Amino acid sequence: MSESSFSMPAPAPLASVVGIDIGMESCMMCALTMEKRQVIKPSPFANKAEGFISLFERLERLGTVPDQILVGLEATSRYGESLYYALLKRGYRVCLLHPAQMHAFAQQRGLRAKTDQVDATTIARALLSGEARFGYVPTEQVATYRELVRLQQQLSDDVVRYKNEIHALLVVLFPEFTQVFADPTRPTALAFLKRYPSAQAVAQAEVGILSQVLHELSPKHYGRRTAEKLLDVAKKSISSGVAISARSTSLRILCDQLEHTLTNLEQLQQEIETLLDQDPKAKGVLSIPEFGVMTVAVLRAELGDLDRFARMDQIVAYVGLDLQVKQSGKWIGQTKLSKRGSGRVRRILYLAALRSIWLANSPFGAYYRRLVDRGMKKGMAVVAVMRKLLIVAAHLMLTEQVYEPSKVAALSVR
What three-state secondary structure class fits 344? Predict the structure, then answer.
């Protein structure tokens, strides 16, 4: 979703509030007056054009101009996006609410039931209470980052899964294959396995044909010698031969899936790099040696527009790198990270912090060593470096300045 001038409520007095519980196929709505009187009981409508028309007709029957109606939607990934913008175009005030906020509100009031009707009413009552906090609606640029980065992470996970499954199948189909191809998931090895997915298939082939196939796949690296070695290990293979046809089919499909996923991943990487090149807020962060391209992309995607934060410590807390203290009377619990917010950001900051420790002339690595020399535990020192990396990155994104290593020590959460 992109940020709109209609996303914050205008100062005009409200006449009604509407709570909408979003579902993939259908939604539930409920309307209350400012005196908590129910004017539209919990009613379903379809999450499509016909349903939207039905919703608007019910709201129009209230006899109130759209600008005096506040509609609350619980953030549910993409399911509520079309409705969100449809409401904005009609002139309604719209408030996007975080699910955790609604869960806490329901718990405070001792609500035990959890149904669509109850959820819609709870959202409406939360709007009336004044406790509802308007959720963040990302701009077009941030939404683009999020779409590309999260798909990249999903495809990267798929690549790892496909590789693991290919290795597992080769253990029973052709255990000796790695004696010839150290990495069976490289392009040449994948293409060869699609043609000869088992030791039995290789053993039945002629060395001349194998040599020709290898030469076609990689003329500068493989030829008759590789073919002879493959044929030799295939004939001596300890492969059980059990379910060989089904397993060969599985291996071919996995190799094909891996090739397509790697191609899509490369295309996605190019799109992300193009987006970063055109983003002035990313210029300074890209020059930090501890950060790679994907690290910066994840920061831009998950942090969003930093202008909405008043202080740097709010950004630290948003990422979950703030400390959570538990204490009651004489009992003092263990102080831990709150770990709220995006785990993706914490993960990439952790990897960047480890990289800084071994990177020559890194001011972040020097900061880590100073903390350890003062007696801080190594794990806590790494977390401190993560915070420092986040603060520097946020500062550069906010100011669009050039990265200067000499100024790293001067930046803090204050």
Answer: helix
